[in-house]
Amino acid sequence: MAAVLVIGTGRSGTSLLMQALGALGLQMPKEAVPATENNLRGTGEEIAVRDQMLSLHDSLGPVIAFRPDDWQSEPISRQTVEWIADYLAENQEQAGEKGFAVKFPLTALYLPLWQEASRRANVPLKMLWATRGAPQTVGSLIKSYGRQPEVAMQTWAQRTYYLLRDAPADAMLLPYETWAADSEGLVRTIADFVGIADDPETIAAARQFSPLLDHSAEGAFEIAEPVGGIASAVDQLIAGRQGELREIVRRDDIDFLRLMTRLADAILALAPGVVPVAEETEMRTNLLKRLGDEANQETSEMKEEIAVLAQRIRDVSAENRNLKKELVIQSDNTAHIGEKTGENGVDIAWDPKKLSDVYQELFAARGQLYELQIENETFRSKLQNYEEEALRCQSELQEKEQSLKALNDEFEQASVAHAAMETEASEIREAYARLALQRDGVEEEVESRFRERLNIMEDRIEFIEQRRDVLRENNERIRNNNENLRKEFNALKKQRDEMVKKREQFRQKVNEVTARRDEIRDSKNAEIKALKAQLAAANGKSAQPRNKSVPTQNTNAGSPKQQPAAKPLRSMWHMFSRK
């Protein structure tokens, strides 16, 4: 996985972006800058990276506007490239497949060094650009760091200029305002960009954004000129837009070149006394080339840009002349160095070593003067080309003036029609004023009616709120009663379940007793039948002799000897039935 470099102007959401990358599983700095009241969760900046970038920044001089010419060839720049390459290689080896993230806002000024170190270390480097509106960023710089408004605007303008100039085309722009609107969607975009699969870690990373961290609603700082207009133009170009830089900005577009030159002018206006450098002049020259390729409508703008460049060439030439005078004076003074006589007539012998050093300085100064003369000649040739272009533009301008004269005639005709329209417009304005007075009266009447209705509604709302409180109390009591009834119901249900269980057990025993009873009854009935049969047989044998002497009609009455035989039968049945 590639290394991720978080870039931005500062106070634009870079720390929040580092926290999200940490939640996604990327390796964070081993020795991070401690958290402060401005970043309660920490900035995500590594102390070693901070110290190295500050050392570079200080060694290149006061970089308050533009980087010095040929700054990448300076020894401190070469040393920084080697340090960054070693840093990337070491962290890539430690992080392995999960990758790592690094961030320090000052890197916005020195992105070419990071890109060169990435190629040297053979570590792919992806950049995430945290963007935020210019008024909000400047206001946050003032509030969080106590900076003066001019310094905060200069910081924003300088870093924005070099981010737009040097950031790679595949850098991903992530608006700060999107965190509050769709943090989960933004984190999924980050995960896809750095090559992390969609998994539950993305949800955890999205939760890094808390409403407490939402500073998007803070009062924006009203940026004044010379930065106000260009700040609005930059916001219109990139603020609130998400995607790769190549999809949002076309660096070969003439509008982009115009914006960059305006941004450079704003930086120079905030840093008086600073001389433009080759980078700024190159951007303005590219704009002139594009203007030359465009249609004739751009001639006036070309004249303005040529005038700016001509003035800057004159300034450089004047500076060269002054330097030449100083070198000539120094050369004349040095030519007379030798043995001099002091005020008291004492000969003073100069040290040959010191004299040699002075000559070396002189030769070096002459070499510098020669280079400045060559540069001056180059500027003069450029100025001559620009003047020729200006002459061509002047001829085109004359043609445009003729066209303008024809347009003026048409304008005079249109002015007559315009006067008539003005008269009609004045009548319409008077009618509008009358309608406005009527509207004001209607608005006052409607406002009074609605105010009365509003008072009535407020009284109703107050009554409803009181009723709601009463119902809430009743609801609470009912809830408590329901809870008690639920507990009693659960207890009764438990008792019922126990009774049902006992009833089932009792029914089972009854069924067993009933079956046993039926079994005994059947066995006893069988015994009774057998006894009855035996008894009947016994009674039959004993009754046969008597039947011969006793008449048939008296058999139902029975004999006195037959009655005792029936008693044992009843007694035995009674005994069995009781059992």
What does this 3D model show about the protein?
This protein is mostly helical. The protein has two domains: 3-294, Rossmann fold; 305-335 and 351-436, no CATH class. Helix content is 70%, strand content 4%. It has 15 helices and seven strands. The strands form two sheets. Strands 2-1-3-4-5 form a five-stranded mixed beta sheet, sandwiched between helices. A two-stranded antiparallel ribbon has the order 6-7. Helix 2 runs antiparallel to helix 3, helix 5 (134-145) packs across helix 6 and helix 9 packs antiparallel against helix 11 (254-270). It is elongated. The two termini are 96 Å apart.
Please describe the structure with a list of short key phrases separated by commas or semicolons:
579 residues, mainly alpha, Rossmann fold, two-stranded antiparallel ribbon, 15 helices, 7 strands, 70% helix, 4% strand, disordered C terminus
